[in-house]
Automatic annotation (TrEMBL):
Record InterPro entries: DUF427, DUF427_sf
Originating organism: Aspergillus saccharolyticus JOP 1030-1
Residue ranges occupied by any DUF427 domain in the UniProt entry: 5-91
Protein's name in the database: DUF427 domain protein
């Protein structure tokens, strides 16, 4: 069964065999997060016309902080209910892979 994984350096942020893919982004379910303490809420908010308002986390791994590396929809519109509270990672900031 394929496994999706989000990592920074050698730290696994999230890992799952069940995820949602929307617009080419893998959305990890909340249960796949390995250490919630690595995720720090930020003030950033963006808007998608069909998904709704996204909120963001920065990721802190050791001495490294990656600002606004993760987004999620706490209250998505009906068309995006399948990704409610799922986390997506900017692939230019976090290594996201799918392995067989």
């Amino acid at each position: 069964m394929p496994t999706a994984k989000a990592t920074i350096d050698n730290t696994v942020l999230a890992e799952t065999t069940h995820w949602e893919t929307v617009e080419g982004n893998i959305y990890f379910p909340p249960s796949s997060i390995k250490d919630p303490s690595l995720f720090v809420p930020t003030e950033l908010s963006t808007f998608c016309p069909w998904k709704g308002h996204a909120s963001y986390y920065s990721v802190v791994v050791g001495e490294k902080t990656i600002p606004n590396a993760v987004w999620y929809y706490a209250e998505p519109y009906e068309a995006a209910l399948n990704i409610k509270d799922h986390l997506a990672f900017y692939t230019n900031k976090v290594n996201v892979t799918v392995e067989e």
